[in-house]
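tool_call predict_complex ligand=magnesium ion
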Amino acid sequence: MKNRIRALILDMDGVLWRGEEPAPGLVDFFALLHERGIRYIMATNNASKTPEQYVDQLARFGVHVPPETVLTSAQATASFLRRQAPPGTPVYIIGEEGLRRALTEAGFVLSADGARYVVVGWDRGLTFEKLAQATLLIRAGAAFIGTNPDRTWPGERGLLPGNGAILAALETATDTRPIIIGKPETPLFEEALARLGASPEETAMVGDRLETDILGGQRMGLFTILLLSGVARREDLETSPVRPDLVLEDLAALTAWLKG
Ligand SMILES: [Mg+2]
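tool_result ok
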């Protein structure tokens, strides 16, 4: 398989860094990709940050990449909506800067007034009024879209509510299931492959979570590589129904595998 890999979809947290610490061998890894002409895109379920914020983080770790190499679930959501609705369409959002920016740059008007779409990303300024507005719109027939299904978010105090928890509140209030854009669903992967100009057969997914990165990669027909440098532990492989094609310790091991 190794010789067929022309492109990589890379998860970031747990793969390229962990918290504020870069993965060992991060600079060497990107040097190898550039040297071999292996295309890459970094794809994240987090809709709250902008691509520039990720580019800045990588630059602090000594890796310089253009913003087009970062794909957030907010941007994939904007692309998904662009295929269904013309610019100027009113969209009601629950979300932060990353989602606001992605949708306004795609030409949508952020307004509850006449909104045909309710898009829900992670929002640390969530209020009852926002949930109420979204509920009324969805009950009135607006399409219900979630950027990502992550149930929790690891904060300094422990596991905090993720976007999946906000979606669950709205699903309960509306009896409607959201369309999900992020991993493990396929729209984020489809957008990544489109940007890479790559086919599934020549692309590998590299991630640290079995139930999102690896499961989603398998649904798209990608070669899947689990790194044990983040969430998943070797023990999890014994009980999980999700089987990656390749399991490696960390990014340095992936570099060595690609070189070997
Ligand atoms: Mg991760």
